[in-house]
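Bench notes, afternoon.
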Amino acid sequence: MNAAARQAEPETEPRRRLLLASDRRDLSADLARILSGVAEVQIIATVQLPDAPAHDLSGIVVDINLRSAESVQAVRRKLLRGGYQSFPRLFVLADELHHGSMQAWALGATDTIARPFDARDLLARIRAAFPDASETSADARAAAVTKGVAAAHGVLVKMFERLPAGRPLTYDDVQQAETPILRAIKRGSLREWLIAVGRHHNESYRLALFATGYAVAFAQHLGMREEDQRRLTRAALLFDVGKAFVDVALLDHVDGLAGERLRKYREHPRLGYDALAAEGTFPRETLEVVLHHHELLDGSGYPDALHGDQISDIVRITTIVDIFTSLVAQRKNHLSLLPLPAFSAMEALGDKIDQRLLQAFRPVALGG
């Protein structure tokens, strides 16, 4: 072991349990030695990945040659199943493969690191992404979800109660909620988040909380950097802020609106944008999501009838999350769909939404 690895390893920290799946001839002996400083490591070949992970695992590390069809197929068959979706999955990749990270995310990675890697960087990634034993108990997971939902709910209370009274919602209000929300999905799971939110009595809050959970789970599934996860968290919390200014009678009958009532409802993106823009501290990207989350790629959306490349990726992701949430969540005067029929309905939208991103969302939508 090199000096950097020895210095990086703490003397006592073997509380995590990691599964290291490798397709290297030496079964990634160098990687295993480094990981052993912060975890108990079980080593197997990638083709021997079990159908479902042990319940007490902290996460899975996959050291894979993406040029190996056998390894790729073995990993795809196992990791894209629901049993692995609640566990962090770090892929270690050969750095010469172009677009390797994108391929790894498609195989189920939640984070990637390239060889040659620095031992300190690797261990920092492990500590950040893989909880230790004290964080994976049922009580700890439940506590993380409870704190995350409470943090998100706190933002929504300010949004729906403070803004209509003429008191601003601040960017700092939202930023303070980001870490507990991200930790809730990472330490708990999307399923636990949805169950906790499903008990909430306020429908407007419940829809926003569902959307936040799906958005964060999607960001983590795609292996986004933490800052990008935070950007999407803000977008999911705030995109429907304009509904704070809409008559509740309209919100309760969205599916049946027409004429002037539909026009009034469709003012909510502009109303939300104006409120946050007037506060003065929200990033332009966040304001764009609030204004354009109902735009569609074929130009049939609102309020500005944008199309194609005029719609950014973060808006496209938010739109997918918004539509899916509106289909599956129980709402007044609305017949909710199960996840699979809802996903099929979104596929039927064709070129109105980004079908590439929608397919990337499939494991999250159907595994939650």
